Amino acid sequence: MTTKASSVWISDLSHTFKKQTKPTLKNINLTIPKGQLTALIGRSGCGKSTLLQMLAGLLIPSDGAVRINAHTVTKPSAKWNMMFQKPSLYPWMTVRENAALGLVFSGTYKAKQDRVETLLEMVGLAEHKDKNVQQLSGGQQQRVALARSLATEPEILLLDEPFSALDAFTRTQLQNEVAEICHNQGITMVMVTHDIDEAVAMADKVVIMSQNPGEIVGEMEVNLTYPRDRSVDEFISLKEKLFNEFEKIDIAKQNSINEDNL
Ligand SMILES: Nc1ncnc2c1ncn2[C@@H]1O[C@H](COP(=O)(O)OP(=O)(O)OP(=O)(O)O)[C@@H](O)[C@H]1O
Ligand SMILES: [Mg+2]
Fold this sequence. Notes:
Blueprint: E1 8-15, E2 25-32, E3 37-41, H1 48-55, E4 63-68, E5 71-72, E6 80-83, H2 95-99, H3 101-105, H4 109-122, H5 138-151, E7 156-160, H6 168-185, E8 188-193, H7 196-202, E9 205-210, E10 215-221, H8 233-261
Helix pairs in contact: 4-5, 7-8
Magnesium ion is lined by residues 48-49, 160.
């Protein structure tokens, strides 16, 4: 099962919400090649979800543009799927029915129903597929959401902290599984997170954002093979490097606020 990937270009993107005087996002430029796994990392409120919603076509930037495969994004598309912190499943439907929803909506269920079975196996839910989703644990429900997101063969998977509500063991397992699935199927993935461990575990490239306004202030490549071993020295030193970058950004930001106030 392979999927066509897409490239993403964000050019000179800034955004000021209505009734706000200061921009939430300022001068964002970013290119994400086909099949790359990118993590956007930054403190709470720096604009990560706002930027992700713009990639999904759910929000239009006040300046600049998002282009996917050279087309400006102006509305949502079935070619890119978003996974949120909560799995948002229909509680009265079974696991299989929930996983198949995207295909049903796009009118392709009959042609592609085998894909739902394969994906439910891939995410470890084969024996649960006739259960009601309410009978599943949080981690299992998030797996249903993942199977649903992948069923429509998206070119891009957009993840907004989809594992933050899970226990540490399930979170680690799902992070590894999602990164491997995207990597093996060539899906372009963009994930927002404020978890340094998650970013280094999943991404090929980590993009660091500062806040007030949200700007890209750094990038770090993660050249480690999948599945990633979190106990090796290279992994630990990349985490330290990312953490140190954050400290530098905080100091630089504080200095610039102090200068502005002089
Ligand atoms: N619809 C809106 N109208 C006005 N301001 C908004 C709107 N949505 C978000 N904001 C503001 O924009 C800023 C960025 O919000 P956003 O949700 O993108 O942050 P985030 O980086 O995803 O934070 P978190 O890590 O807490 O999820 C915040 O200050 C938020 O209050
Ligand atoms: Mg957010």
